[in-house]
Amino acid sequence: MQSQDVAPRPAPGSPADRVVDVEQAEAALVEHYPRLVRLAYLALPPDLGRGRRVLTAHALAQRALPRGRAAAPVIPAQSTARDGDPGYAYVRLQVVRTALEAGLPLKRRAWPKRAQLPPLLPQVWGLRLFPRSGGADELALDQRLCALSGPARAAYVLRGLERLPDGDVREVLTGAGVGADEVAAALREADTVPARYALLDSSEFDPCFLQVRPTDLMRRRRHTKAALAAAAALAVCGALVALPGDGWGPDGAAAPVYARNPAAEAALDPGRLVKVSPAAWKTSARTDFSVWPARGDLTGDSALLRRALAVWARPGGTVRVSATPGTPTGGPSGPPQLLFAGEVDTARVVVLHDGLRIARYAEPKKGTAGAALDFARVDGATGAEASAVVLDRTDGNVRYLTAPWVRKAAERDLSKPGAGLMDLTLTGGITSPLASPATHAGACTTWNVLQLTDASGSYLVSDLGELVPARLTAGRPGRTKDATGAEALRTWAPFACSLGEVRGQGVRTVNAWGYARQSLPDESGSGTWVCTRTETWRGDGTRVLAQFQTPGGLFGAVVAKAGDVPACGPRDPHVLAGVLWKSKAGSWYLLAAGDRRTESVRATGGVSGSAEGNLLAVPTKQGAQAELKGTLENGRSISGLR
Asked: Quick one: pLDDT at residue 507?
């Protein structure tokens, strides 16, 4: 053990602290600005709202510079890029201190601290800024962090983001003005949240990687004109803007009205919602969301429908808004179609469709506090892709609203093809609850999917944390089939848990293609090569995984992955991938396989070898790196997936 691990560290503010000047602190701030802003954003109180937290986090980081020379506590960072940098230690301490001050309650007889007030700078006129939404795991962690006190939240973030041990966390919190008893309580409270520190680096908590929405455009235009008028005209315009038509009450959690024109009012009028006849789908040539009837016991509740439409058009600061990647979140351009309005478990739910998107509004049965608005893109959905919408997720279970043409619903464990089906009841098109893999935390051992049956046959869909489940298929690209047959289920079983890689990505379909079987060099059996390709609703963002399963293994392993490539898809139905494999005797091999139309495979770089046909096995050493090339029957060359 090194002496620095056992020597006592000087207390913050002691003479042993290192002196930092403005230039040194500025250099640290500029170099590590994204991390400092992320630290401030995570430590700020959640009741500020996501938009204000973004601007406040940037303001606190930018105000962390000392006015002159200052003492920095000797608290090293765990990253080698910041280790021993007193400038970084100083600005980090200032960020934590001011973030904790922002969460203090305002006192009547004392001036508020600067951090408790809205930041003067930075300001972004005409735009609202929010971090990009993460997946179900990030959302769950954010909810747990929101329930912590300010010091406990800062302790968790310092542990996870800064990789500080508890002794250093105590020193930072003490230096930030937290009392000794509060520090101990904060560490105990932070222990109640699972240590999922890798999630802190996701885009959900990155105030430097933002999505942008406009503010109230018409209202802003009126304010600009009013600023050029006389004081009397300003007073009149201000009074008009302050009166939002029918008042705040009927709109629930919606923000103030931004437009008073016939087109906008028609889109927000619950009396103009499109309600399709229950029998329309029986005679229509289309099988998409446009022929879904309006279902639920609250389709006549005008007040609920008005709130749902108003929140869609202008969600208030307390509304939790989420959208799959590539899905616009603006208001409807005209009266949308009502698919459902009713009570589901502990909430009132409204599901709407505007031809491009599904929008789900949910509020508690009592009041509108905690209202949520979710969007999913569904343009071009038909048949199996328009067969179900998520109504509610509660206690690890999910309920679906199914298409009117669905005759039967059942639950299946995709990882156990021989386990059979468990029938689900359909009541008014709503399924009974089934276990949702989208909310499961920890090691994956099962993956439950929904099997639906209509007049054309059966198909599988999986909950991936979005409003619309993803359709599962199997087979060679260009000739895929729904993954309900015995062979397709056997193909999917070892690789079902790989669906967790694409949760929350706007997934439309996922196809599994068993493209090769390879005899292992130690004669212990044959390994299976499978390629899974994920297609999205927006077109880009595709994900290709090459996976390998050894004989007797319950699950496959991802050996190569790529994004936005045509491989393993209908435009390029070919794939080549490799893996280092250790035999039972302890020998290492490079195994590689292409699809059956691969004429030869060769490896270069750290491993050299070639073989005729689509399979390659070459002795090698642990950790070797190789480049794979293959030649197809038509003479075209392909590279290994990476």
From this structure: 96
